Amino acid sequence: MDVTQCNDCKRLRTYCERIGKEKRKAYQNDQYWARPVPAFGVPQPEVVIVGLAPGAHGANRTGRVFTGDRSGEWLYRALHRADFANQSESTGLGDGLQLKNAIVTCVVKCAPPDNKPTPGEIARCSKKFFDVEIQKYSRARVYIALGQIAFHALWKKLGNQKTRPKFEHGKEIELEKGLLLLSYHPSQQNTFTGRLTEPMFDRIFARANDALRAGPAKSTAELC
Ligand code: SF4
After folding, report:
1. Does 37 sit in the ligand 1 pocket, CB within 6 Å?
2. Residue 11 Cα, ligand 1 centroid: separation in angstroms?
3. 108: Cβ below 6 Å to ligand 1?
């Protein structure tokens, strides 16, 4: 099913459409996307970057994941510095941005009120779209979880039923399918307070590049 046509979560669909009509004052002349937001990047990436959900006036406005708000500015600048993007700015569909060997996606495809999807909404969207997507990326070797919920969703899919480790920024976890890197989400809550700095964020993507250069994932015998 085309993700952009999904209406399964009534609360989220109502919210996204309402925000799209009310609009923020600064964007009164914009036509809001106001639909579920698909992943953005190459179809078969080696690097998969996962966030929580679209921002109400960011991706829910522009139609591209992590685009149109401060979190996205941080993410695409970092991707450009690490050579996973051809430009540092992501302003909207048709701006010329292309990712290299990477894809950016979210666990939940519709913007939630207060950036907080319910556990039921997370489970529903994961089952219907996110888990299927992750399965589809057969060349993926590095997964980057931006925040705890992204980590939990990835772990559920890739953790091979092992006990989930504690979330820590910078933590690296060997998976059967590759390497999982944990990062704080580049939300304003983290970046304005200095909890996440650009050098900290850059180190995550530098590790992704190191892992790609190091070659295929370790054999099963070496995995934790
Ligand atoms: S959050 Fe996911 S499952 Fe729910 S309506 Fe949006 S696309 Fe559909």
Report:
1. no
2. 10
3. yes
User: Cα separation of 193 and 207, whole Å?
Assistant: 24
In the block, residue with structure tokens 């919920």: 149
Residue 4 has pLDDT above 50, yes or no: yes
- Of the listed ranges 34-48, 121-135, 210-224, the least confidently predicted one is 210-224
DSSP-assigned letters across all residues of 38-107: --EE-SS-SEEEEES---TTTHHHHSSTT-SSHHHHHHHHHHHHTTSBS-S---STTS---BSSEEEEES
Give domain limits for the chain.
3-214
Give the model confidence (pLDDT) of 60-92 as tens digits. Answer: 999 999 999 999 999 999 999 999 999 999 999
* Global pTM value: 0.95
The verdict on domain 3-214 having CATH code 3.40.470.10 is: yes
